[in-house]
């Protein structure tokens, strides 16, 4: 039987090949990933060119790629061969969506599992989540290439390499640079420059030293590592571990690519063959780098283009005129050209108008070069005074990164006006959901989640960033809803515009009537406590579905806080709930929100909780102190200060009011309505 013996022969050969592969499973090399059998999840995919794309420029995504077969790190071997060494070499590139604004970076990882479905993206890099970050049970080693400074993980800057053992707080890290032996010095590298680079990770088990080295793609491996850190990995790694990559984007995104990868657990990893690596996709057109365009287009076309641009520029010069001063060059990376914004918003057409608020009109737009959707806020600003400080502040606000903040992308200045460019939020502002007759209304599930979102954004501004940022205008119309109805706080720090000279009376209280803490009228000074007050009013707003001030209402109903307080005192707090919810809510959550709202909107600043406590109450990690009956307000856990007991004593006999008429009192309990 010729045919069957041939088949047998073939099978034997195949199984032989299989065996030889299996023997080599602890080492591999990919010069491009065409046909590679990797385990991919999330946004990760292998492009037809063989490029491994961990994330594209979609926001808030993560992607993982693993070598399918676990690497056996033989720890049982013996004392003579301690934990084996390993070595890896990879070529990667990070291409930000907008120049200098990036997603979070990528990491080479060694992990006991390929399942990272519970991990979150953003600053967690798709590696951990808030509850398992730092746990020794993770058994994860990551070499992070991090492009964002996250103070919560003690990051050193927004361009570093770090060694992470079970935690995003790196055991060691360094700004990205490589040692050039020809020049005898370190040369710094920007991860975000979009060019391919190489990373080498070498572990010397007997000496318990982990070396990490980075260099531009076409350079030989530098002979001095960037990091050479003592780490005893035998303590962390298990016998069978997967090796691969993790990457994540946040409110702003980057393409994260891996071009090639070699790995070896029994010797130094082979060098990649640079010429075989897949090319990166053509660079996005950016105004900073016209040279890319020039290379691609024939000269005639360029001349023509320049002529057209020149002609258009000449004609439109006035139309697109901007104000740009000497001191501003430092902020060029965050500057948008007026022309781009003009084109993006179709000439600030009424049709593109998203809304008009206290600070100006907001337009929807699509950036011509990158198709990124944006929201442009146009603020008229006549004064020149204080501009320098304000622009500096915009630059620092742009560095605020949190999944529940509307990301500020940059600015532009013209005569008499200032334009701020933000991430576009497809679902618009929350007040439209709360106060319109739109059906179905925003469910309690979403409302409660949005409350937590906004609380976590405020906590970040107050406590988690490098400096305290006051919002000063927390309210439902400043909360925007993104594509999946999560809440994002917008307009942070904008109130400062008034401090920088626009308004000569700098004592002017910024904020919105109904959300202003009583002490603001006396001191005029905004504090984290005044933000908490406004957040309290916002919580009540979400529960009651009414505006904080209702000037058409009965006198005693004008202030929502007083009105809710009245019901609470009568033990009927659940009567204030938004009828549009039609009774579908969790009673415990609703009660928590109403009572916590009242606590936050307490007239005495000292009685208000801090945002960290608010977060703990909302998460249910700490239970809200049981509020005592009637007059003895909030005294169960907060020791009453003198002020507080004054407050309590000035309303001695409240219980009588309920029976007569719940709302008969014209005595304002909380003096919010000024
Ligand atoms: C990213 O990839 C996903 C699917 O893999 C796709 O839906 C999305 O449109 C892509 N985003 C961009 C910005 O290309
Ligand atoms: C681990 O090391 C021991 C002792 O050297 C050896 O007997 C065993 O075969 C090794 N296991 C693997 C999976 O290499
Ligand atoms: C975090 O991840 C761990 C393990 O992957 C999972 O068990 C846990 O439920 C996650 N926690 C949260 C808050 O998502
Ligand atoms: C180069 O960087 C390494 C690692 O950060 C550092 O130890 C070394 O001192 C630097 N060398 C020079 C010449 O600056
Ligand atoms: C790590 O770096 C040190 C310092 O340059 C060097 O002596 C050592 O040989 C390196 N080890 C490995 C495994 O590359
Ligand atoms: C792994 O190391 C061994 C021993 O130095 C070497 O022969 C082999 O080519 C290496 N393999 C890879 C894929 O780097
Ligand atoms: C990005 O920022 C760096 C340093 O902050 C600066 O040197 C560089 O010019 C900026 N690049 C672009 C394209 O804006």
Automatic annotation (TrEMBL):
PROSITE patterns the record matches: PROTEIN_KINASE_ATP, PROTEIN_KINASE_DOM, PROTEIN_KINASE_ST
Catalysed transformations (reactions): L-seryl-[protein] + ATP = O-phospho-L-seryl-[protein] + ADP + H(+); L-threonyl-[protein] + ATP = O-phospho-L-threonyl-[protein] + ADP + H(+)
Subcellular compartments: Cell membrane
Signal peptide: 1-22
TM ranges: 293-315
Record has Transcription regulation as a keyword: no
Binding site for ATP: 377
UniProt keyword annotations, A-Z: ATP-binding, Cell membrane, Glycoprotein, Kinase, Lectin, Membrane, Nucleotide-binding, Receptor, Signal, Transferase, Transmembrane, Transmembrane helix
Entry keyword ATP-binding: yes
UniProt xrefs under Pfam families: Lectin_legB, Pkinase
GO molecular function: ATP binding; carbohydrate binding; protein serine/threonine kinase activity
Sequence ranges assigned to domain Protein kinase in this UniProt record: 348-624
Record's GO cellular component terms: plasma membrane
Family: In the C-terminal section; belongs to the protein kinase superfamily. Ser/Thr protein kinase family. Belongs to the leguminous lectin family.
Protein name, as recorded: Protein kinase domain-containing protein
């Amino acid at each position: 039987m010729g045919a069957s013996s041939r088949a047998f022969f073939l099978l034997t050969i195949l199984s032989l090949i299989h065996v030889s592969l299996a023997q080599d499973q602890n080492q591999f090399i990919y010069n491009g990933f065409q046909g590679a059998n990797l385990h991919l999840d999330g946004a990760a995919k292998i492009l037809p060119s063989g490029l491994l794309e961990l994330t594209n420029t979609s926001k808030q995504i993560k992607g993982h790629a693993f070598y399918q077969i676990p690497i056996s790190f033989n720890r049982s071997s013996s004392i003579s061969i301690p934990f084996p060494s390993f070595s890896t070499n990879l070529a990667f590139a990070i291409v930000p969506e907008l120049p200098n604004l990036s997603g979070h970076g990528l990491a080479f990882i060694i992990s006991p599992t390929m399942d990272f479905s519970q991990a979150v993206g953003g600053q967690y890099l798709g590696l951990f989540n808030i509850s398992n970050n730092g746990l020794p049970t993770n058994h994860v080693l990551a070499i992070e290439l991090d492009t964002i400074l996250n103070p919560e993980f003690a990051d050193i800057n927004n361009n570093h390499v770090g060694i992470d053992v079970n935690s995003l707080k790196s055991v060691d890290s360094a700004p990205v640079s490589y040692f050039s032996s020809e020049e005898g010095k370190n040369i710094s590298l920007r991860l975000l420059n979009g060019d391919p680079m190489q990373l080498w990770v070498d572990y010397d088990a007997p000496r318990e030293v982990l070396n990490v080295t980075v260099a531009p793609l076409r350079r030989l491996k530098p002979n001095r590592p960037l990091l050479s850190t003592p780490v005893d990995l035998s303590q962390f790694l298990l016998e069978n571990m997967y090796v691969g990559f993790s990457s994540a984007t946040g409110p702003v995104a980057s393409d994260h690519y891996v071009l090639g990868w070699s790995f070896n657990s029994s010797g130094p990893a082979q060098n990649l063959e640079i010429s075989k690596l897949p090319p990166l996709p053509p660079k996005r057109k950016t105004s900073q780098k016209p040279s890319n365009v020039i290379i691609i287009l024939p000269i005639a076309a360029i001349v023509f283009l320049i002529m057209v641009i020149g002609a258009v520029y000449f004609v439109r010069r006035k139309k697109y005129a901007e104000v740009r001063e000497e001191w501003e060059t430092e902020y060029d990376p965050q500057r948008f050209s007026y022309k781009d914004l003009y084109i993006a918003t179709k000439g600030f057409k009424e049709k593109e108008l998203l809304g008009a608020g206290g600070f100006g009109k907001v337009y929807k737009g699509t950036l011509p070069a990158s198709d990124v959707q944006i929201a442009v806020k146009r603020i008229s600003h006549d004064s020149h005074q204080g501009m320098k400080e304000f622009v500096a502040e915009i630059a620092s606000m742009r560095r605020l990164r949190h999944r529940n903040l509307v990301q500020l992308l940059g600015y532009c200045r013209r005569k008499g006006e200032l334009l701020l460019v933000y991430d576009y939020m497809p679902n618009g502002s929350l007040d439209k959901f709360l106060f319109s007759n739109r059906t179905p209304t925003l469910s309690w599930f979403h409302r409660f989640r949005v409350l937590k979102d906004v609380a976590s954004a405020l906590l970040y501004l107050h406590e988690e960033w490098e400096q305290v940022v006051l919002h000063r205008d927390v309210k439902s119309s400043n909360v925007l809803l993104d594509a999946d109805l999560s809440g994002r706080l917008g307009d942070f720090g904008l109130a400062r515009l008034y401090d920088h000279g626009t308004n000569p009376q700098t004592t002017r209280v910024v904020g919105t009537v109904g959300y202003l803490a009583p002490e603001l009228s006396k001191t005029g000074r905004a504090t984290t406590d005044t933000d908490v007050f406004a957040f309290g009013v916002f919580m009540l707003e979400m529960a009651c579905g009414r505006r904080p001030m209702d000037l058409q209402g009965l006198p005693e109903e004008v202030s929502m806080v007083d009105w809710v307080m009245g019901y609470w005192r009568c033990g009927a707090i659940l009567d204030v709930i938004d009828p549009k919810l039609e009774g579908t809510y969790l009673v415990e959550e609703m009660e928590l929100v109403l009572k916590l709202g009242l606590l936050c909107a307490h007239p005495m600043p000292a009685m208000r909780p801090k945002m960290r406590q608010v977060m703990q109450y909302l998460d249910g990690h700490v239970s809200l102190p049981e509020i005592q009956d009637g007059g003895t307000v909030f005294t169960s856990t907060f020791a009453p200060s003198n002020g507080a007991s004054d407050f309590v004593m000035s309303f001695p006999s409240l219980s009588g009011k309920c029976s007569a008429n719940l709302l008969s009192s014209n005595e304002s309990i909380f003096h919010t309505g000024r």
